[in-house]
Specification:
two-stranded antiparallel ribbon, mainly alpha, 12 helices
């Protein structure tokens, strides 16, 4: 009977030793845990041969591997072979939207290394995707927001927003985004802004889009009117030694013929202390 239990005891002891050894080994700090060093990355041609013509499947497998592989890095580290990996995936499947999008996001998580170089890599990946997916406004919009939020590069953000806005099926909000960023960056004349927002009103998809476009048009028209009307107020001040208290004073002086109205048909006000016009923006009254 005892002989039957001896092998079992030996197995239990050996198992205990193995588990204990594994625990102790796990406590040993490692500079570079297993899997953090990529030893070999095949070429697209090699992977296409290995996949027996199923390059899309090979791209899927490599994509899933890449997410697991890069999850072992910390944001301050330099992510090894990152651009090479996602170039390989998108060479295998040039229409792989998620590879462009997620690849860019993983790049942007990285905080260490040369950030200018990182930004160029992100841009190259987005540009490759936009070339291979010529009808994807979604990828262009993602690029616009990434450059706006992650890199604070409003010029690049506007570039991608303009690409998104002209692609088939682009929603009205992207066109509004282009207009807002152009206004903010002063990337066009005030007349261009007015023409753009008038067209945006005509193209509005719903009442919200229309209301937002009308609001931006109001601001553009008021900006143009302010420049002209404040020049009139300045002329009145030079002539009379003080600012006009109301438009009747300006009309009496012969500088204008009637009370100036804003986009909605409401009279502009005058702030005589600053000698500027006041736009009340009563859009909802219409």
């Amino acid at each position: 009977m005892i002989r039957k239990f001896i092998p079992l005891v030996i197995i239990v002891v050996l198992l205990g030793i193995a588990v204990g050894s594994e625990v102790e080994l796990g406590r040993i700090p490692k500079e570079d845990p297993l899997g953090r060093e990529l030893l070999y990355l095949p070429s697209p041609e090699m992977l296409k041969i290995m996949s027996l013509g199923n390059s899309g499947l090979a791209a899927d497998v490599l994509y899933l591997w890449s997410i697991q592989y890069y999850s072992m890095f910390r944001p301050h580290e330099r992510f090894l072979y990152l651009e090479t990996t996602y170039n390989l995936i998108t060479d295998l499947d040039p229409l792989y939207f998620d590879a462009y999008r997620i690849g860019a996001l993983i790049m942007e998580i990285q905080t260490g290394g040369d950030q200018a170089q990182l930004k160029r890599a992100v841009r190259r990946l987005f540009d490759k995707g936009l070339e291979n997916l010529p009808e994807s406004w979604q990828l262009a919009e993602a690029a616009a927001w990434d450059f706006f939020m992650r890199f604070q590069d409003q010029e690049a953000a506007l570039h991608y927003a303009e690409i998104a806005a002209v692609r088939p099926g682009a929603p009205a909000r992207i066109k509004r985004m282009v207009g807002v960023w152009r206004d903010k960056e002063r990337a066009w004349s005030i007349d261009d802004s007015i023409d753009y927002w008038r067209a945006a009103i005509d193209d509005a998809e719903d009442e919200y889009d229309r209301a937002m476009s009308v609001s931006h048009l109001y601001d553009a028209v008021a900006t143009k009117d302010r420049k002209a009307l404040e020049a009139v107020l300045a002329a009145y001040s030079r002539r009379n030694g003080h600012c006009a208290k109301g438009w009747d004073d300006v009309i009496t002086a012969g500088l204008i013929r009637e009370v100036p109205l804003d986009l909605m048909g409401n009279p502009y006000g005058i702030d005589s202390s600053a000698c500027t016009i006041v736009a009340y923006k009563k859009i909802r009254d219409q």
